[in-house]
Amino acid sequence: MPLPHLRPSTASGVRRLARRHPAALTWLFLCSTGGALAALALPAVLGHTVDRLVAGGPVPWAGLLLCAALVLAETAFDAAAAVTGATTTARLTASLRTRTAARVLAAEPRRALALPTGDLTARLTARTADAASAPVTAAGAVAGVLLPLGAVVGLLVIDVWTAAALLLGAPLLVALLSSFTRRTADAGADYQRAQSLIAHRLTEALDGADTIRAARTGAREHRRVLAPLTGLAEHGRRTWTVYGRAVGRSGLLLPLLMLLVLAVGGLRLGAGAIGVGDLVAATRYASLAVGIGVLTGALGSLARSRAAADALEPLLGLAPLPHRGLGPVPQAPGHLELRDVGVEQDGTPLLTGIRLTVPGGTSLAVVGRSGSGKSQLAAVAGRLLDPDTGCVLLDGVPLDGMEPARLRREVAYAFARPALPGTTVEDTIAYGPWTAPPDAVRSAARAARADGFVALLPYGYATPLAEAPLSGGERQRLGLARAFAHPGRLMILDDALSSLDTVTEHHVRQALDARAGRCTRIIVAHRLSSAARADRVAWLEEGRLRATGSHEELWADPDYRAVFRTDAPGTPAGDSAPAPAGTSAPAAGAEAR
Q1: Rounded to an integer, what distance in angstroms lies between the CA atom of residue 39 and that of residue 316?
Q2: Which of 219, 224, 343, 442 has minimal CB crowding within 10 Å?
């Protein structure tokens, strides 16, 4: 689905959403208004008909038929409002989810993913549903406002003293509704925050399921994930307590008001000021005026919607990646240049002063110990991350000036743990800036050495991913195949070979080498073999570029050799990784797996 065009606007996303669906909301407004007007007209017609019956004479069939027509009209309008409200809410929810997700995907990742994953998921699902109901609730709340106001007007027309009896309790009703709305909003916001915390912890636990299973800490994680459940229950009880108190107080206040209206109306009837039909109409109008259940429900829904909208505003306010509409230089080889690049997170430098040039069509291995900034450099090189200082150029064009959609067609990524969108195996390989054709999918799968295990699946490339049990290495090969299926001038592999066996890695490296001269390749490497095969190596240490050069040149430095040393249990002392020709091997170390 194409993402909607995004403008850097800070206006409320919910208000913009309402303006995008005026026809449905207008029809809902008309249906709610029509139902309310029919309900308000019925007591007057009914009272007039009763007066005709009491007065004797022929049966007032016209009045009876009009009463029946008003009842049918009220029922029809209410039914149409219910159907329109449900369908419009579903459409608004889908539209708001699409727009919010588009904002997140179009923004700079550090800002888009500042929220914990579980909280972000909760906002994109439950919060969007709550917020999207606001326009529908507001349009449908016309009946909740129009009925009591119209009923008071009807009472004033019938008899001022009867209306005055009802208005005595109006301040209490207003105070009741105001307190209910404020407390419901507070309880709803707290409830939503507790939900988000549970979702975040559950996401963490699912991501680390293997670690939890291996450590036998399932019971502890279960308690940690569900710890906020106590607060969630408390907020839920608080919500129902607020609602219950409002219902209880209204249940005490409203019958007293009705009794007062009936008493005054009876006295006025006895005095001859009003007739029997007027008393019937006044009773019905008083019932409509004090029947605040619809309005109470609408106010509660609007309070929850407001809390949800407040939670969505930071996401809807995300600005898309800035650019100047530039495009890549045609037919260029992918010359990459990083000029004084620096990246910080929460005040901690992750990359500092990186100056690096990668000639077009060559390969660069990025090596360093864990935490040295390798993944940050890979992200900056293809603009998955904007540097805080410095700039990155591709064939002389700054990445932050290039239109994102055009840039994505020139940069292919593969990751250690790739996401696999799509319904089938073929879908996930074809997924990208453009949908790769079937022949490109199969060619890419052969290059990534994925065609062998795909052929063994029940339906080959048409096998649903849900029915394809994949190992970590097989998932990596599908991610590599997706990158091969969308060739550009720059390919970045962020630890994307880590789960491959030695033979498979050798064949994948051959496929990568075949792109020499027409595609620049950046490989975040942990294996000695990956660094040895690259044209040049960038050696990172604590976020700084310690040295660049060929693997053979850097091998002379014992600190460089130590990068590939492993302290894994069972590694005999004195085992060493194979050294380049013409160099001496280190005293200890082995190829990192």
Answers
A1: 40
A2: 219
